[in-house]
Amino acid sequence: MSDRPSTPTRSEPTDALAARARAKLARLVAECFVEPSPAALQRLKQSAVRAEALEAAAALNLPTKPIRSALDAFRSIADWIDWHNRLFGHTVRAACPPYEIEYLHAEVFQQSQTLADIAGFYAAFGFAVGGPFAERPDHFVTQWEYLSALAMKESIAGEAGNAEGRACCREAQAAFLAEHAARWMPAFFERIQRTASSEEVSGPCTAIVDFADSLLQRWCDEFDVRLGPRWIELRPVTDDDEQITCGGGAASVELGPTMAAAMAERD
């Protein structure tokens, strides 16, 4: 046995703080990509949100300039709606679809299986897609909210000394990144950057993508997950799309290219 002292590992509080930082920044990414609303804009413009985001970025050794640039660019609801609609539109097949299966070349059955697998990840931790702006489980915002919740649960378990609970949350994050988020989001980010550049789309989209991209890379480094390619051609749209549904009964939603996102107002 070597007499050389072992390399000290990070303490549990440090791990817990890092997980909480990931949770905060993931929630901010989700907020930046939600359907624009005056209430959401007001939240993004709060000084407390900026301070908390910058503190979280520093904890993860992430550059803070993209966060500052993104939050500074949220000036008016009209500008936000303009660039959001031009990039993401009101249908599944927009210029930059924020849906995972639009980047997967698979048969209809496999697409349905992918949606079911994602929903299974959510259900395993007691989550379900719902609310007035309910989206498909493969939506970009939904996936970041899920990662945020898992990271927060990891942080809470770490602070409580619950090693088993913390390990469970970390395993779920690694699996979800490897099987879903990390596979298609790099291509989604690249499509936004190309579209914004070619069509001269104004707004905070470039800074937001830089911020989200760096966070995803940091997350994947933490969990030793390989990122997907920077460019993926969108899957071809077929007549079978109109037959795919997610959910059951009255809650079912079509997955075809003309499905509009729910537009009901928040209470």
Fill in the keyword field for this structure.
disordered C terminus; 2 strands; disordered N terminus; 267 residues; TorD-like; mainly alpha; two-stranded antiparallel ribbon
Describe the structure.
- The structure is a single chain.
- With 267 residues, the protein is an all-alpha fold.
- The chain has a single domain, classed as TorD-like, CATH 1.10.3480.
- It contains 9 helices and 2 strands.
- A two-stranded antiparallel ribbon has the order 1-2.
- A hairpin with a 6-residue loop joins strand 1 and strand 2 (253-254).
- Helix 1 (12-32) packs across helix 3 (47-59), helix 4 runs antiparallel to helix 9 (205-222) and helix 8 runs antiparallel to helix 9 (205-222).
- Residues 1-13 and 242-267 have low confidence and may be disordered.
Contiguous uncertain segments of 5+ residues: 1-13, 242-267
Oligomer: single chain
Q: Give the helix level as a range of percent.
A: 55-70%
Instruction: Supply the CATH superfamily name.
Output: TorD-like
Number of strands: 2
**CATH C-level class:** Mainly Alpha
Secondary-structure element series: HHHHHHHHHEE
**β-strand amount:** under 5%
User: In what order do the strands lie side by side in the largest sheet?
Assistant: 1-2
| DSSP helical segment count | 9
Overall pLDDT score: 82
Characterize the largest beta sheet: strand count, sense, and whether it forms a barrel: 2 strands, antiparallel
CATH architecture: Orthogonal Bundle
Shape: globular
What's the topology here?
Layout: H1 12-32, H2 38-44, H3 47-59, H4 65-73, H5 77-88, H6 108-124, H7 140-159, H8 163-198, H9 205-222, E1 245-246, E2 253-254
Antiparallel strand pairs: 1-2
Helix pairs in contact: 1-3, 1-7, 1-9, 4-9, 7-8, 8-9
